[in-house]
Amino acid sequence: MSYPNPLVPGFNPDPSVVRVGDDFYLATSTFEYLPGIPIYHSRDFITWTQVGNVATRVGQLDVETVPTAGGAWAPTIRHRDGLFHLVITDAFGRGTLHFTAERAEGPWSDGVVFDGVDGIDPDLVWDEDGTAYLTFSGLGVNPELPTFMSHRGLLQAKVDLETGRALEQARSIWSGGGGQFPEAPHLYQIGDWWYMVIAEGGTERGHSVNVARSKSPEGPFEPAPGAPLLTARGTDRPIQNTGHGDLVVGPDGDWLLVLLGVRPRSMTRAFSALGRETFVTRVSWENEWPVFEPVQLTPRPGPFEYLDEFDGPLADQWMAVRRLPESIASTEVRPGWLTVRADGSTLSDPIPSFIGRRQQHQTARCTVDIDVAAGVGGIAVRYDERFHYSVVAGAGAVTARACIPGFERVAVLEYSGTELQLELTSRRPEAGSKFGSSASDIVELAAIIEGNRTVLLEVDGRYLSSEVAESFTGRVVGVVALAGEVCVDRFAYAGSDD
Ligand code: 6LW
Protein backbone atom coordinates (compact mmCIF):
# COMPACT_ATOMS: atom_id res chain seq x y z
CA MET A 1 0.00 0.00 0.00
CA SER A 2 1.27 3.49 -0.66
CA TYR A 3 0.29 6.48 1.39
CA PRO A 4 -0.27 10.01 0.10
CA ASN A 5 2.51 12.53 0.63
CA PRO A 6 2.08 15.13 1.91
CA LEU A 7 0.05 13.16 4.42
CA VAL A 8 -1.41 16.28 6.07
CA PRO A 9 -0.70 19.18 3.70
CA GLY A 10 -0.06 22.80 4.58
CA PHE A 11 1.31 24.28 7.81
CA ASN A 12 1.48 21.07 9.90
CA PRO A 13 4.99 20.63 11.31
CA ASP A 14 6.38 18.42 14.10
CA PRO A 15 3.80 15.64 13.68
CA SER A 16 3.19 13.13 16.43
CA VAL A 17 0.86 10.17 16.02
CA VAL A 18 -0.73 7.54 18.24
CA ARG A 19 -2.63 4.38 17.41
CA VAL A 20 -5.62 3.46 19.58
CA GLY A 21 -7.10 0.18 18.35
CA ASP A 22 -7.76 0.81 14.66
CA ASP A 23 -7.81 4.59 15.01
CA PHE A 24 -4.91 6.96 14.45
CA TYR A 25 -4.67 10.44 15.93
CA LEU A 26 -2.08 12.94 14.78
CA ALA A 27 -1.17 16.32 16.30
CA THR A 28 0.98 19.15 14.91
CA SER A 29 2.45 22.48 16.07
CA THR A 30 0.56 25.77 15.76
CA PHE A 31 2.95 28.37 17.30
CA GLU A 32 1.12 31.67 17.87
CA TYR A 33 -2.20 30.57 16.34
CA LEU A 34 -5.38 29.66 18.24
CA PRO A 35 -7.15 27.34 18.53
CA GLY A 36 -3.89 25.47 18.98
CA ILE A 37 -2.69 21.97 18.20
CA PRO A 38 -5.07 20.37 15.69
CA ILE A 39 -5.96 16.70 16.11
CA TYR A 40 -6.37 14.77 12.86
CA HIS A 41 -8.00 11.34 12.78
CA SER A 42 -7.67 8.48 10.32
CA ARG A 43 -8.43 4.77 10.15
CA ASP A 44 -6.69 3.97 6.86
CA PHE A 45 -3.76 6.40 7.25
CA ILE A 46 -4.84 7.92 3.91
CA THR A 47 -7.78 10.17 4.72
CA TRP A 48 -7.14 12.48 7.65
CA THR A 49 -9.93 14.56 9.11
CA GLN A 50 -9.45 17.28 11.67
CA VAL A 51 -11.64 16.31 14.62
CA GLY A 52 -10.71 19.07 17.03
CA ASN A 53 -7.99 21.16 18.62
CA VAL A 54 -6.29 20.81 22.00
CA ALA A 55 -6.15 24.51 22.93
CA THR A 56 -9.65 25.91 22.47
CA ARG A 57 -9.88 28.08 25.59
CA VAL A 58 -8.09 31.12 26.91
CA GLY A 59 -5.27 30.14 29.26
CA GLN A 60 -4.39 26.71 27.88
CA LEU A 61 -1.56 28.32 25.92
CA ASP A 62 -0.09 31.68 26.75
CA VAL A 63 0.46 32.85 23.18
CA GLU A 64 -0.95 36.40 23.46
CA THR A 65 2.51 37.91 23.83
CA VAL A 66 4.82 35.27 22.36
CA PRO A 67 7.28 36.47 19.72
CA THR A 68 6.87 35.31 16.14
CA ALA A 69 7.78 31.62 15.97
CA GLY A 70 7.08 31.15 19.67
CA GLY A 71 4.05 29.35 21.11
CA ALA A 72 3.02 25.73 20.64
CA TRP A 73 6.08 23.71 19.57
CA ALA A 74 6.32 20.03 18.87
CA PRO A 75 3.65 17.87 20.52
CA THR A 76 3.86 14.22 21.54
CA ILE A 77 0.49 12.46 21.61
CA ARG A 78 0.10 9.16 23.47
CA HIS A 79 -2.73 7.04 24.93
CA ARG A 80 -2.73 5.00 28.12
CA ASP A 81 -5.43 3.45 30.30
CA GLY A 82 -8.24 5.13 28.37
CA LEU A 83 -6.72 8.61 28.45
CA PHE A 84 -5.05 10.69 25.76
CA HIS A 85 -1.92 12.55 26.82
CA LEU A 86 -0.32 15.38 24.90
CA VAL A 87 2.89 17.07 25.96
CA ILE A 88 4.19 20.16 24.19
CA THR A 89 6.28 23.28 24.80
CA ASP A 90 4.56 26.66 24.77
CA ALA A 91 7.83 28.37 23.86
CA PHE A 92 8.29 31.82 25.44
CA GLY A 93 4.80 31.24 26.90
CA ARG A 94 3.70 28.86 29.67
CA GLY A 95 6.59 26.42 29.23
CA THR A 96 6.39 22.65 28.81
CA LEU A 97 2.84 21.40 29.31
CA HIS A 98 0.84 18.22 29.83
CA PHE A 99 -2.75 18.03 28.55
CA THR A 100 -5.15 15.10 28.86
CA ALA A 101 -8.50 14.19 27.30
CA GLU A 102 -10.83 11.22 27.33
CA ARG A 103 -11.64 11.77 23.66
CA ALA A 104 -9.11 13.08 21.18
CA GLU A 105 -11.79 15.43 19.87
CA GLY A 106 -11.68 17.15 23.27
CA PRO A 107 -12.33 18.83 25.52
CA TRP A 108 -8.68 18.75 26.62
CA SER A 109 -7.62 19.73 30.11
CA ASP A 110 -6.29 23.16 31.08
CA GLY A 111 -2.72 21.86 30.98
CA VAL A 112 -0.20 21.38 33.79
CA VAL A 113 3.19 23.07 33.53
CA PHE A 114 6.15 20.75 34.11
CA ASP A 115 8.19 22.17 36.92
CA GLY A 116 11.94 21.67 36.56
CA VAL A 117 11.81 20.98 32.82
CA ASP A 118 13.90 23.51 30.90
CA GLY A 119 13.78 22.64 27.22
CA ILE A 120 11.61 21.90 24.19
CA ASP A 121 10.15 18.97 22.24
CA PRO A 122 8.98 16.83 25.16
CA ASP A 123 8.30 13.12 24.76
CA LEU A 124 6.25 11.07 27.21
CA VAL A 125 6.72 7.35 27.77
CA TRP A 126 6.03 4.89 30.60
CA ASP A 127 8.07 1.86 31.64
CA GLU A 128 6.58 -1.49 32.75
CA ASP A 129 6.17 -0.18 36.29
CA GLY A 130 4.18 2.81 35.11
CA THR A 131 6.97 5.31 35.78
CA ALA A 132 6.57 8.28 33.42
CA TYR A 133 9.65 9.64 31.66
CA LEU A 134 9.81 13.03 30.01
CA THR A 135 12.60 13.15 27.44
CA PHE A 136 13.28 16.50 25.79
CA SER A 137 15.72 18.68 23.94
CA GLY A 138 17.81 20.85 26.26
CA LEU A 139 17.37 24.07 24.28
CA GLY A 140 16.67 26.76 26.86
CA VAL A 141 13.69 28.93 25.86
CA ASN A 142 12.99 30.54 29.21
CA PRO A 143 14.54 34.06 29.15
CA GLU A 144 14.54 34.10 32.95
CA LEU A 145 16.95 31.19 33.23
CA PRO A 146 20.73 31.31 32.70
CA THR A 147 20.33 28.43 30.22
CA PHE A 148 18.39 30.71 27.81
CA MET A 149 19.32 29.80 24.22
CA SER A 150 21.98 27.33 25.28
CA HIS A 151 21.71 23.74 24.07
CA ARG A 152 22.35 20.82 26.40
CA GLY A 153 21.59 17.85 24.13
CA LEU A 154 18.86 15.38 25.00
CA LEU A 155 17.71 15.38 28.60
CA GLN A 156 15.38 13.19 30.59
CA ALA A 157 13.60 13.26 33.93
CA LYS A 158 11.10 11.01 35.63
CA VAL A 159 7.96 13.07 36.20
CA ASP A 160 4.85 13.03 38.33
CA LEU A 161 2.06 13.60 35.82
CA GLU A 162 -0.44 14.65 38.47
CA THR A 163 1.57 17.62 39.67
CA GLY A 164 3.90 18.16 36.72
CA ARG A 165 6.87 17.93 39.07
CA ALA A 166 10.16 16.53 37.80
CA LEU A 167 11.14 13.80 40.26
CA GLU A 168 14.85 14.26 39.65
CA GLN A 169 17.34 16.69 38.15
CA ALA A 170 17.12 16.21 34.36
CA ARG A 171 19.87 13.86 33.18
CA SER A 172 21.75 14.06 29.88
CA ILE A 173 21.05 10.88 27.89
CA TRP A 174 22.53 11.57 24.45
CA SER A 175 23.96 14.43 22.45
CA GLY A 176 23.07 13.01 19.03
CA GLY A 177 25.43 12.31 16.17
CA GLY A 178 27.09 15.71 16.01
CA GLY A 179 24.51 17.63 13.96
CA GLN A 180 23.15 20.99 15.03
CA PHE A 181 20.17 20.95 17.44
CA PRO A 182 19.69 17.35 18.53
CA GLU A 183 15.95 17.53 19.31
CA ALA A 184 12.49 16.03 18.88
CA PRO A 185 13.19 12.82 20.85
CA HIS A 186 10.60 10.05 20.90
CA LEU A 187 11.15 6.89 22.95
CA TYR A 188 9.61 3.47 22.27
CA GLN A 189 9.93 0.04 23.82
CA ILE A 190 10.08 -2.36 20.88
CA GLY A 191 11.11 -5.98 21.44
CA ASP A 192 14.11 -6.09 23.76
CA TRP A 193 15.11 -2.49 23.15
CA TRP A 194 14.24 1.05 23.99
CA TYR A 195 14.69 3.11 20.83
CA MET A 196 15.13 6.86 20.79
CA VAL A 197 14.35 8.58 17.46
CA ILE A 198 15.59 12.17 17.26
CA ALA A 199 16.02 14.98 14.74
CA GLU A 200 19.29 16.80 14.18
CA GLY A 201 20.91 19.15 11.70
CA GLY A 202 18.38 21.99 12.23
CA THR A 203 14.88 22.11 10.78
CA GLU A 204 16.10 23.48 7.43
CA ARG A 205 18.02 21.74 4.63
CA GLY A 206 20.35 19.97 7.08
CA HIS A 207 17.51 18.20 8.87
CA SER A 208 17.76 14.46 9.51
CA VAL A 209 16.61 11.53 11.61
CA ASN A 210 18.97 9.72 13.95
CA VAL A 211 18.37 6.79 16.29
CA ALA A 212 19.94 5.29 19.40
CA ARG A 213 18.92 2.28 21.48
CA SER A 214 19.30 0.98 25.00
CA LYS A 215 18.08 -1.82 27.22
CA SER A 216 16.63 0.77 29.56
CA PRO A 217 14.61 3.95 28.96
CA GLU A 218 17.29 5.81 30.93
CA GLY A 219 20.18 4.62 28.77
CA PRO A 220 23.04 4.26 28.19
CA PHE A 221 22.11 4.79 24.54
CA GLU A 222 24.09 3.26 21.70
CA PRO A 223 23.93 5.28 18.45
CA ALA A 224 22.80 3.53 15.26
CA PRO A 225 25.52 2.87 12.72
CA GLY A 226 25.39 4.81 9.46
CA ALA A 227 23.74 8.02 10.69
CA PRO A 228 21.93 10.00 9.50
CA LEU A 229 19.34 7.31 9.00
CA LEU A 230 17.12 9.56 6.94
CA THR A 231 17.82 12.92 5.35
CA ALA A 232 17.17 14.74 2.09
CA ARG A 233 20.19 17.01 2.48
CA GLY A 234 22.26 17.44 -0.66
CA THR A 235 19.75 15.48 -2.74
CA ASP A 236 17.39 16.58 -5.49
CA ARG A 237 14.41 14.95 -3.78
CA PRO A 238 11.21 17.00 -4.11
CA ILE A 239 10.61 16.79 -0.35
CA GLN A 240 13.40 18.49 1.60
CA ASN A 241 14.17 19.23 5.28
CA THR A 242 12.86 15.79 6.27
CA GLY A 243 13.16 15.02 9.97
CA HIS A 244 11.36 15.24 13.31
CA GLY A 245 9.67 11.86 13.06
CA ASP A 246 7.38 9.72 15.22
CA LEU A 247 7.01 5.93 14.77
CA VAL A 248 3.75 4.01 14.65
CA VAL A 249 2.48 0.64 13.44
CA GLY A 250 0.29 1.41 10.42
CA PRO A 251 -3.05 -0.16 9.44
CA ASP A 252 -1.40 -3.05 7.58
CA GLY A 253 0.88 -3.90 10.54
CA ASP A 254 3.98 -2.29 9.03
CA TRP A 255 6.00 0.35 10.80
CA LEU A 256 5.65 3.93 9.59
CA LEU A 257 7.39 7.19 10.45
CA VAL A 258 5.43 10.44 10.26
CA LEU A 259 7.73 13.41 9.93
CA LEU A 260 7.98 16.99 8.72
CA GLY A 261 9.27 18.17 5.37
CA VAL A 262 8.85 20.96 2.83
CA ARG A 263 8.09 21.07 -0.86
CA PRO A 264 10.42 23.68 -2.34
CA ARG A 265 9.92 24.75 -5.91
CA SER A 266 13.04 25.18 -8.04
CA MET A 267 16.67 24.03 -7.74
CA THR A 268 19.30 24.65 -5.05
CA ARG A 269 17.82 28.04 -4.32
CA ALA A 270 14.23 27.11 -3.76
CA PHE A 271 11.29 28.29 -1.68
CA SER A 272 8.53 26.37 0.06
CA ALA A 273 5.32 28.38 0.00
CA LEU A 274 3.26 26.20 2.27
CA GLY A 275 5.70 25.86 5.16
CA ARG A 276 6.55 22.62 6.94
CA GLU A 277 4.03 19.87 6.24
CA THR A 278 3.43 16.33 7.53
CA PHE A 279 4.74 13.39 5.49
CA VAL A 280 5.04 9.64 6.05
CA THR A 281 7.55 6.98 5.09
CA ARG A 282 7.89 3.23 5.57
CA VAL A 283 10.20 1.66 8.11
CA SER A 284 11.75 -1.81 8.05
CA TRP A 285 14.12 -3.40 10.56
CA GLU A 286 17.62 -4.76 10.02
CA ASN A 287 19.77 -6.09 12.86
CA GLU A 288 17.24 -4.61 15.24
CA TRP A 289 17.75 -1.12 13.82
CA PRO A 290 15.08 0.81 11.90
CA VAL A 291 15.68 1.48 8.21
CA PHE A 292 13.75 4.42 6.78
CA GLU A 293 12.71 4.67 3.13
CA PRO A 294 13.36 8.02 1.49
CA VAL A 295 10.24 10.17 1.58
CA GLN A 296 8.39 10.00 -1.75
CA LEU A 297 6.19 12.71 -3.21
CA THR A 298 2.76 11.16 -3.87
CA PRO A 299 0.21 13.98 -3.68
CA ARG A 300 -3.46 13.15 -3.72
CA PRO A 301 -4.98 13.71 -7.14
CA GLY A 302 -6.68 17.10 -7.27
CA PRO A 303 -8.53 19.29 -7.51
CA PHE A 304 -9.41 19.72 -3.87
CA GLU A 305 -12.25 22.10 -3.03
CA TYR A 306 -14.35 23.35 -0.20
CA LEU A 307 -16.91 26.03 0.30
CA ASP A 308 -17.62 27.51 3.72
CA GLU A 309 -21.01 29.23 3.83
CA PHE A 310 -20.90 29.89 7.58
CA ASP A 311 -24.24 28.24 8.24
CA GLY A 312 -23.20 26.98 11.67
CA PRO A 313 -20.44 27.43 14.22
CA LEU A 314 -17.01 28.25 12.84
CA ALA A 315 -15.24 25.09 11.64
CA ASP A 316 -12.25 23.78 13.64
CA GLN A 317 -9.87 24.73 10.82
CA TRP A 318 -10.26 28.49 11.32
CA MET A 319 -7.49 30.09 13.37
CA ALA A 320 -6.67 33.57 14.63
CA VAL A 321 -3.33 35.00 15.68
CA ARG A 322 -2.51 35.18 19.40
CA ARG A 323 -6.21 35.09 20.23
CA LEU A 324 -9.21 32.88 19.67
CA PRO A 325 -11.24 33.44 16.49
CA GLU A 326 -14.43 34.03 18.51
CA SER A 327 -12.88 37.15 20.05
CA ILE A 328 -13.26 38.92 16.67
CA ALA A 329 -15.41 36.67 14.48
CA SER A 330 -18.94 35.33 14.66
CA THR A 331 -21.38 33.39 12.49
CA GLU A 332 -24.30 34.47 14.69
CA VAL A 333 -24.25 38.28 14.40
CA ARG A 334 -25.61 37.88 10.88
CA PRO A 335 -26.72 34.25 10.50
CA GLY A 336 -25.26 32.53 7.45
CA TRP A 337 -22.43 35.06 7.28
CA LEU A 338 -19.05 35.35 8.90
CA THR A 339 -18.74 38.74 10.59
CA VAL A 340 -15.21 39.89 11.44
CA ARG A 341 -14.78 42.94 13.63
CA ALA A 342 -11.90 45.38 13.28
CA ASP A 343 -10.10 46.67 16.35
CA GLY A 344 -7.71 49.23 14.90
CA SER A 345 -5.03 46.67 14.10
CA THR A 346 -3.60 45.83 10.68
CA LEU A 347 -1.94 42.70 9.35
CA SER A 348 1.40 44.22 10.37
CA ASP A 349 0.39 44.05 14.03
CA PRO A 350 1.14 40.99 16.16
CA ILE A 351 -2.56 40.57 16.89
CA PRO A 352 -4.47 41.39 13.70
CA SER A 353 -8.22 41.14 13.13
CA PHE A 354 -7.71 38.13 10.91
CA ILE A 355 -8.95 34.57 10.85
CA GLY A 356 -7.72 32.06 8.32
CA ARG A 357 -7.09 28.49 7.26
CA ARG A 358 -3.99 26.75 5.93
CA GLN A 359 -3.09 27.02 2.25
CA GLN A 360 -2.63 23.32 1.53
CA HIS A 361 -1.84 23.10 -2.17
CA GLN A 362 0.87 24.54 -4.34
CA THR A 363 -1.76 25.95 -6.65
CA ALA A 364 -4.67 27.51 -4.83
CA ARG A 365 -7.48 29.95 -5.47
CA CYS A 366 -9.39 31.49 -2.58
CA THR A 367 -12.33 33.83 -2.92
CA VAL A 368 -14.58 35.65 -0.49
CA ASP A 369 -18.03 37.03 -1.27
CA ILE A 370 -17.93 40.03 0.98
CA ASP A 371 -20.16 42.85 2.13
CA VAL A 372 -18.24 45.94 3.21
CA ALA A 373 -21.20 48.25 3.86
CA ALA A 374 -20.13 48.59 7.49
CA GLY A 375 -16.38 48.46 7.28
CA VAL A 376 -13.16 47.79 5.40
CA GLY A 377 -11.80 44.29 4.96
CA GLY A 378 -11.06 41.49 2.59
CA ILE A 379 -8.88 38.47 1.93
CA ALA A 380 -5.28 38.01 3.01
CA VAL A 381 -2.48 35.49 3.02
CA ARG A 382 -0.27 35.71 6.06
CA TYR A 383 3.02 34.10 6.99
CA ASP A 384 3.50 36.38 9.97
CA GLU A 385 3.13 40.07 10.85
CA ARG A 386 6.08 40.99 8.65
CA PHE A 387 5.15 38.99 5.57
CA HIS A 388 1.60 39.26 4.23
CA TYR A 389 -0.37 40.07 1.07
CA SER A 390 -3.99 41.25 1.04
CA VAL A 391 -6.78 42.79 -0.98
CA VAL A 392 -9.44 44.69 0.94
CA ALA A 393 -12.51 46.72 0.00
CA GLY A 394 -14.58 49.44 1.66
CA ALA A 395 -14.74 53.20 2.10
CA GLY A 396 -14.76 53.84 -1.66
CA ALA A 397 -11.85 51.68 -2.82
CA VAL A 398 -10.38 48.25 -3.31
CA THR A 399 -6.78 48.17 -2.09
CA ALA A 400 -4.23 45.44 -2.69
CA ARG A 401 -1.15 45.49 -0.50
CA ALA A 402 1.99 43.35 -0.43
CA CYS A 403 4.20 43.77 2.65
CA ILE A 404 7.62 42.39 3.38
CA PRO A 405 9.90 44.05 5.95
CA GLY A 406 10.82 47.53 4.73
CA PHE A 407 8.92 47.16 1.46
CA GLU A 408 5.29 47.76 0.69
CA ARG A 409 3.53 47.77 -2.63
CA VAL A 410 0.00 49.14 -2.91
CA ALA A 411 -2.52 49.24 -5.76
CA VAL A 412 -5.89 50.98 -5.53
CA LEU A 413 -9.06 50.67 -7.56
CA GLU A 414 -11.83 53.16 -6.91
CA TYR A 415 -15.06 51.42 -6.02
CA SER A 416 -18.07 52.79 -4.20
CA GLY A 417 -20.25 49.66 -4.00
CA THR A 418 -20.44 47.36 -1.02
CA GLU A 419 -20.79 43.78 -2.30
CA LEU A 420 -18.07 42.15 -4.36
CA GLN A 421 -15.81 39.17 -4.59
CA LEU A 422 -12.13 39.34 -3.64
CA GLU A 423 -9.71 36.72 -4.84
CA LEU A 424 -6.26 35.51 -3.90
CA THR A 425 -4.52 33.06 -6.20
CA SER A 426 -1.23 31.22 -5.82
CA ARG A 427 -0.04 29.72 -9.08
CA ARG A 428 3.02 28.08 -10.57
CA PRO A 429 5.35 30.58 -12.31
CA GLU A 430 5.11 30.14 -16.05
CA ALA A 431 8.25 29.69 -18.17
CA GLY A 432 9.94 33.04 -18.75
CA SER A 433 8.01 34.68 -15.92
CA LYS A 434 9.25 38.11 -14.90
CA PHE A 435 9.75 36.72 -11.39
CA GLY A 436 12.53 34.41 -12.53
CA SER A 437 12.79 30.68 -12.28
CA SER A 438 13.08 30.29 -8.52
CA ALA A 439 9.84 31.91 -7.38
CA SER A 440 7.85 29.46 -5.26
CA ASP A 441 4.66 30.79 -6.80
CA ILE A 442 3.03 33.94 -8.09
CA VAL A 443 0.36 35.47 -5.91
CA GLU A 444 -2.40 37.41 -7.64
CA LEU A 445 -4.67 39.77 -5.75
CA ALA A 446 -7.89 40.52 -7.62
CA ALA A 447 -11.38 41.96 -7.30
CA ILE A 448 -14.42 40.63 -9.16
CA ILE A 449 -17.07 43.31 -9.49
CA GLU A 450 -20.26 42.51 -11.40
CA GLY A 451 -18.47 39.76 -13.30
CA ASN A 452 -15.42 41.83 -14.19
CA ARG A 453 -12.15 40.57 -12.77
CA THR A 454 -9.40 43.11 -12.14
CA VAL A 455 -5.97 41.98 -11.00
CA LEU A 456 -4.64 44.72 -8.73
CA LEU A 457 -1.29 43.15 -7.89
CA GLU A 458 0.79 40.22 -9.00
CA VAL A 459 3.68 39.47 -6.65
CA ASP A 460 6.45 36.94 -6.11
CA GLY A 461 5.33 34.36 -3.57
CA ARG A 462 8.79 33.43 -2.34
CA TYR A 463 8.77 36.06 0.41
CA LEU A 464 5.94 34.19 2.08
CA SER A 465 7.87 30.95 2.29
CA SER A 466 9.53 28.80 4.88
CA GLU A 467 12.98 29.82 3.67
CA VAL A 468 12.36 33.60 3.86
CA ALA A 469 9.83 34.47 6.57
CA GLU A 470 10.86 34.43 10.20
CA SER A 471 8.20 32.15 11.55
CA PHE A 472 8.14 28.36 11.78
CA THR A 473 4.57 28.35 10.50
CA GLY A 474 3.18 28.35 6.96
CA ARG A 475 0.69 30.17 4.82
CA VAL A 476 -2.67 30.97 6.32
CA VAL A 477 -5.35 32.47 4.05
CA GLY A 478 -8.46 34.16 5.37
CA VAL A 479 -10.46 37.23 6.18
CA VAL A 480 -9.07 40.47 7.57
CA ALA A 481 -11.03 43.42 8.97
CA LEU A 482 -9.36 46.86 9.06
CA ALA A 483 -12.31 49.09 9.99
CA GLY A 484 -15.83 48.53 11.31
CA GLU A 485 -17.24 45.11 10.54
CA VAL A 486 -17.07 43.07 7.36
CA CYS A 487 -19.38 40.21 6.47
CA VAL A 488 -18.46 37.22 4.33
CA ASP A 489 -21.18 35.09 2.78
CA ARG A 490 -18.90 32.44 1.24
CA PHE A 491 -15.25 31.46 1.48
CA ALA A 492 -14.30 29.18 -1.42
CA TYR A 493 -11.01 27.30 -1.75
CA ALA A 494 -9.80 25.29 -4.74
CA GLY A 495 -6.35 23.78 -4.66
CA SER A 496 -4.27 21.29 -6.57
CA ASP A 497 -0.75 19.91 -6.56
CA ASP A 498 -0.69 19.10 -10.26
C1 6LW B 1 10.63 22.38 17.17
C2 6LW B 1 12.02 21.92 17.05
C3 6LW B 1 12.52 22.75 15.95
O1 6LW B 1 10.21 22.41 18.48
O2 6LW B 1 11.60 23.64 15.55
O3 6LW B 1 14.19 23.58 14.71
C4 6LW B 1 10.71 23.76 16.58
N1 6LW B 1 13.68 22.75 15.54
O4 6LW B 1 12.10 20.55 16.87
C5 6LW B 1 9.41 24.26 16.08
O5 6LW B 1 8.88 23.44 15.08
Q: What report would you give on this structure?
A:
By secondary structure, the chain is mainly β. It folds into 2 domains: 16-292, Glycosyl hydrolase domain, family 43 (Tachylectin-2, Chain A, 5 Propeller); 304-496, Jelly Rolls (Sandwich), CATH 2.60.120.200. Helix content is 0%, strand content 52%. The protein has no helices and 39 strands. It has strands spanning 16-20, 23-27, 33-34, 36-42, 49-55, 71-80, 83-91, 95-101, 112-113, 120-126, 132-139, 151-160, 165-166, 171-174, 183-190, 193-200, 208-214, 222-223, 230-231, 240-249, 255-262, 265-266, 270-271, 277-286, 289-292, 304-308, 319-321, 329-330, 338-341, 354-358, 363-371, 375-384, 387-394, 397-404, 407-414, 419-427, 442-449, 452-460, 476-496. The protein has a 15-stranded antiparallel sheet that branches. Strands 10, 11, 12, 13 and 14 form a 5-stranded antiparallel sheet that branches. It starts with 15 loop residues before the first strand and ends with a strand. The model has no long low-confidence stretch (mean pLDDT 97). (Z)-L-Arabinonhydroximo-1,4-lactone binds at residues 13-14, 29, 73-74, 120-121, 181, 183-184, 199, 202-203, 244, 472.
